[in-house]
UniProtKB/TrEMBL annotation:
Highest taxon above the source species: Eukaryota
Broad EC category: transferase
CC annotations in GO: mitochondrial matrix
Compartment(s): Mitochondrion
Family from the record: Belongs to the class I-like SAM-binding methyltransferase superfamily. rRNA adenine N(6)-methyltransferase family.
Main location per the UniProt record: mitochondrion
Gene of this entry: ORF186354
A GO term for molecular function: mitochondrial transcription factor activity
Keywords linked to the UniProt accession: Methyltransferase, RNA-binding, rRNA processing, S-adenosyl-L-methionine, Transferase
PANTHER family xref list: DIMETHYLADENOSINE TRANSFERASE, DIMETHYLADENOSINE TRANSFERASE 1, MITOCHONDRIAL
Entry protein name: rRNA adenine N(6)-methyltransferase
Keyword set includes Membrane: no
Length: 286
């Protein structure tokens, strides 16, 4: 079966799509950000994560306004093997504004290298399949469109909770052209510079490298080092440099870690309770 999710409630378009597919396509109207893909799929499609890809393929011509929040949401689901990814390594082929597509696939040292590059590449094999000129669309956008294919990796390149990886990447790429030590320092209160020194010692990376020069594996080393510090001092996880205040010595770490989760994605998406639980139980998972 073929399912099509549309936010456009044009009945004639839906009818044409159904007829063109010989009624094999089911058109569902609504907001894809709120939609549970798992509700469409039968367990007959399920494969083991490290086996062949399931007979499922998500294809989307995405509005530019939702493309980045949506792929972040789906990457989080991939990291937990939930939703459409509870059936196995479900691939996606999606459209993005060309510049966003370039950022998704950007290698280290590329001018397009950013937080999104790392978040996508640590979980997926990403490839820019081709570019579509804007004039091919109706109405035509002012920019060209890149078509990117995502295939989830059998093993993530960074073995840490999704939100922790996102937080570290956000701090590193806040100043991508500065030495990455600057981003590491911003993970901690000013008076705890000893912790950024610990990370640098554990990683053994050149402190004069810039964030955009770091490979996914090198960022993974930073994430691992940060996780070890959080394991010893859980209250450090609650520190947010934007709050410009010291980390309090909280007695109830579980409550605080639940609160910080909402900040980690910088307000772009609603935090999920299960991610908060990952933080609350961080020490127990080690």
């Amino acid at each position: 079966p073929i399912f099509s999710k549309h936010c456009d409630h044009n009945v004639s378009v839906s009818k044409i799509l159904k007829e063109t597919s010989n009624h094999r396509m089911e058109v569902i109207h609504g907001d894809v950000l709120d939609f549970n893909l798992q509700s469409l799929l039968s367990m007959d499609y399920k494969t083991e994560w490290k086996d062949r890809l399931p007979n499922i393929h998500i294809i989307g011509n995405l509005p530019f306004s939702v493309s980045t929040p949506l792929i972040i949401q789906w990457l989080r689901s991939m990291s937990k093997m939930s939703g459409a990814w509870s059936y196995g390594r479900t691939p996606c082929t999606l459209t993005f504004q060309k510049e966003v597509a370039e950022r998704i696939i950007a290698p280290p040292k590329s001018e397009y290298r950013c937080r999104l590059s790392v978040m996508c590449q640590y979980l997926c094999d990403t490839k820019l399949k081709f570019t579509i000129p804007g004039k091919a669309f109706v109405p035509p956008p002012e920019v060209d469109v890149g078509v990117v294919k995502f295939v989830p990796l059998k093993e993530p390149l960074i073995h840490q909770p999704f939100a922790l990886v996102e937080k570290v990447c956000r701090h590193l790429f806040n100043t991508p052209n500065k030495y990455f030590i600057r981003g590491v320092r911003s993970l901690f209160p000013v008076e705890r510079d000893d912790l950024s020194s610990q990370i640098m010692e554990m990683c053994g990376l050149n402190p004069q490298m810039r964030a955009f020069e770091l490979s996914v594996q090198e960022i993974g080393q930073i994430c691992d080092a940060y996780a070890k510090i959080v394991e010893k001092e859980p209250e450090i996880l609650t520190y947010d440099v934007r709050d410009n205040r010291k980390v309090p010595r909280w007695k109830n770490t579980e409550i605080v870690t639940s609160d910080i989760e909402a900040k980690i994605l910088n307000g772009s998406l609603e935090a999920e309770e299960t991610e908060s639980e990952q933080y609350a139980n961080f020490n127990n998972s080690k």
